[in-house]
């Protein structure tokens, strides 16, 4: 794996680490130069571009508990990164599996799915350009999502 691919892979993992920590500002910062797409080719209201809009999306959707976390663990696997070094862009995909345990919810898998990502280099650093999230299987997300 190239150094660029490893940097991008670490960016993908950083996303999971920050959301599980309840660090909504940190998650949103990953999209300073990009956007989150709630659905493929969705209407404008499902696209959250930039830090402020990404932060708003997570604030609207993610239930945080007294300890400041969503009491989840996002497991990311099957990460594939394809870098075009000449253009400073890359694309990637990954699977995710989210577990959750709360005082009234025993440990369980609440959702699985996959990401389709694009990346670009800004001032030598890799950033998300876009992340589209797909839900493949869904369980009890009532204690994780606000909707």
Using brief descriptors, characterize the structure shown.
alpha+beta; 147 residues; 3 helices; six-stranded mixed sheet; 24% helix
What would you say this structure looks like, in words?
- The model has no long low-confidence stretch (mean pLDDT 96).
- This protein has helices at residues 3-20, 24-29, 50-61, and strands at 35-37, 47-49, 72-84, 89-102, 105-122, 125-138.
- Strand 5 (105-122) and strand 6 form a beta hairpin.
- The longest helix has 18 residues, at 3-20.
- The radius of gyration is 15 Å and the shape is globular.
- The protein is of the alpha+beta class.
- It has a six-stranded mixed β-sheet with strand order 2-1-6-5-4-3.
- It has three helices and six strands.
Précis, in short:
The protein has 147 residues and is of the alpha+beta class.
């Amino acid at each position: 794996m190239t150094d660029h691919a490893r940097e991008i892979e670490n960016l993908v993992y950083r996303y999971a680490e920050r959301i599980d920590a309840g660090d909504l500002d940190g998650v949103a910062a990953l999209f300073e130069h990009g956007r989150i797409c709630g659905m493929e080719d969705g209407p404008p209201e499902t696209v959250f571009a930039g830090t402020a809009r990404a932060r708003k999306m997570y604030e609207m959707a993610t239930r945080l508990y007294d300890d400041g976390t969503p009491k989840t663990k996002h497991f990311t696997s099957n990460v594939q990164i394809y870098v075009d070094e000449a253009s400073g862009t890359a694309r990637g995909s990954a699977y995710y599996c989210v577990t959750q345990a709360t005082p009234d919810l025993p440990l369980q898998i609440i959702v699985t799915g996959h990401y389709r990502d694009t990346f670009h280099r800004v001032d030598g650093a890799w950033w998300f350009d876009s992340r589209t999230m797909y839900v493949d299987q869904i369980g009890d997300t009532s204690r994780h999502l606000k909707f």
